[in-house]
Input
Amino acid sequence: MTALVRPYRLAPGARVAVVAPSGPVSEERLEAGLDILRGWDLDPVVAPHVLDRHGELGYLAGTDTDRAADLQNAWCDPSVAAVLCARGGYGVQRIVDLLDWDAMRAAGPKVFVGFSDPTVLHQAFATRLGLVTLYGPAAAGADFVKNTRTQEHLRATLFHPESVRTLRAAPGGGGALVPGRARGVTLGGCLALLAADLGTPHAPASARGGLLVIEDVGEQAYRIDRMLTQLLRSGWLDGVAGIALGSWSGCGPYEKLRPVFVDRLGGLGVPVVEEFGFGHCEGALTIPLGVAAELDADAGTLTLDEPALR
Output
C-alpha cells in the first residue's frame, strides 16, 4: 500500500460545495454549518438537491440520480476547491456506481470531507482517483455546528495541515489495547460500511500495509463482532500494520465492547489503540486517509509523514 496524491490546502475565499449523498439534511443545521464555513472566509455553495427527500424512501436525501448528479457536478466544477458532505445516514452505496469516475478523475485533485456512510466514497476516491481524503465532520452535523474542538481541528487540517501532523487522542482516551508502534498508510472509516463494501468494484482489495481506522454508531457488541469476523474471514485484514479504534456511540458500555476487540483483533499481532476520538463523538478529530503515517499505540498518537494537504 502506497501513499496517495494529496490535494491542495484551502485558501481564504475558496469555494466549497456541500452535497448530500446519503440521508436527509436538517435545514437549520445546514444553515448553522454554512455560517461556520463563511466565518472561515470560505464561499460555500449548496448543491441543488441537498434539502430534497425521497418520495417513498424517507431515509434518502432525494433520488439516487439527483444525489449522484449533485456530487459529480460539484466535483467537476473547476471553481470548487473542496466537496463537503452535509451528513451521513445511508445512501452512498446506491449512487457510487452512477458516478462517472473518468470525468471525476479528469477534474483533478481536490479536497473531500465526510464520515460514516461516505466511507464508501472515501474508498472509491482512493481506488479510482488515487486521492487522499479527510474522514471528518459533516457540514450539517450536530458535532460540527456545536463543538469547537471539531471545528478547529477540521479548520487546521484544511488551511494549516502542517499544524496537525501529529494527531492525539482526546483526553482520557488513546490507551493501547495492544501495545507497540506501526507504520503504514491510513485507510478505513465506519466499520459497517467497510464490511458492506467488501468485494465491490470500488473497495480496496485488502488492508495489507495499512493503518486501519474504524468506528461505528448504534451497533450492539455481537454485530461489531460479526462485522470484524467478516473482515477477518474474507482475508481483508491480512497484513494490516496497525489499528486505531474511534468512537462507538450508542453501541453500549465500552467495557463490554473491549473484550470483542481483544478477541477479534488481538490475534493479529499488530498495535491497536482504543478510544482515539474520531467518528460519531463529541470533539471528533479529522483523520486523513491515504497518508503514510506512524501509529504509536502506547503514546496514543498518529503521526503523518507529510501534511494531509499540499
User: Anything to note?
Assistant: The chain has a mean pLDDT of 97. The radius of gyration is 18 Å.
